[in-house]
Amino acid sequence: MAVMRMGYAHVRVTDMAEAKDHYANTMGLYETHSEGNKTYYKAWDEWDHHSVVLEEGGVGLVKFGWKVEYSSDLDEIEKRATAFGVTVERMSKGENPEIGDGIRFTTPSDHVFEVYHEATCIGTEVGTHNPDAFPRHLVGVGVPALDHALITAEDPGLMDRFLTAVFDFYPTERVQTSLDSDADIIATWMTSGNQIHQLAVLAGPNSKLHHFAFRLGDWVEVGRAADLFSMDDVPIDIGPTRHGITRGQTVYFFDPSGNRNEVFAGGYLAFRDRPMSVWTPDALGKGVFYHARELNDAFTSVLT
Amino acid sequence: MPTVRIHPTGEVIHLEPAETVLSGLYRAGYSYTVGCRRGGCAICKVDCRSGEFSYDHPIADTVLDEDERTDGTCLSCRAVPTTDITIELRGEDVRLVNPFLRQINEKARLRAEALAAAPAGPTTQE
Question: Is residue A134, in this structure, part of any structural domain at all?
């Protein structure tokens, strides 16, 4: 059984015209579809129909989609989620444009997850036959792909257990109150494969979004992204800097509705048998912002 | 143009046309508690003690609840005053981070006041 990746992040925006300008012209996503009050995007190195969905009205997260490797995974995840005590409903092909049958449930943290196996394949912008390294005419930052998200939950430890039991995720790093075996989990970084994290969960209110992130290649690309944010008057929360946790290089910034985005590069390869890194609150500043070594007040308080 | 008076310090900020409260504070050299600056996170709320303002974007119900739309709560990054207003900050005071901008804003405010006080008549070049 395998959840392969976060397939899509579906978020609310207050003003679609401004949001489209940000995600298309600053981030460089490709619009693949629009209907009613929703616009669908993919990034250049993604092949499925969409990875970002914008819905006009409000701010914050609508739902995440998770793509599994086998159609039988849907039954297995439904079984596991039900056993965990979560109510699971079936979703039909077409409920989300170009997405196949799947399941939908609300996590113990009050976030809506959809799990699916099929999506219409559009193909990457470089194709598969003798592909070039990147498309020549990228727009703005030109992010290649959606990468991960950070959500908040009243009980991150419960979400750690939930994602382990239902998605077969494992934690690569955690923030704990202490190194004792009965320590409380303050935050957890979880993945199904070698990607350093696919979903992180931080202590905070249920149902909230901290950020969703786009992948970049290296420091140079992260720095160039920050330059473009200044050119386009995109509010930067912090960065460019490094996270101690994951070792990723980052800029946190906000879309025109106030949803936090991130560009994220690097991060070491994760393996199930690699001993988990544990951070304690005395070093949390360094863990989150490796250079400033202190949290800004927005890190724990600014959510949508 | 409307002005923003900060209670209780009495500082008066001159706004440009269609400028938000938060933008005016920053353009006058001040810093305040801010998050997304785009109306989504609700961190930059202040209280409006007098005067009128409107919002230049739709504001999500998760950011401003029904009561907050009428009780003087002012989401400073999206609030555009339509009259002179007096605001009270929450939690902390503004921090002056660029005194040169403050001087420029002060001159602009005095010019606007002098213009408003001048007797009506044919417009003359300044």
Answer: no
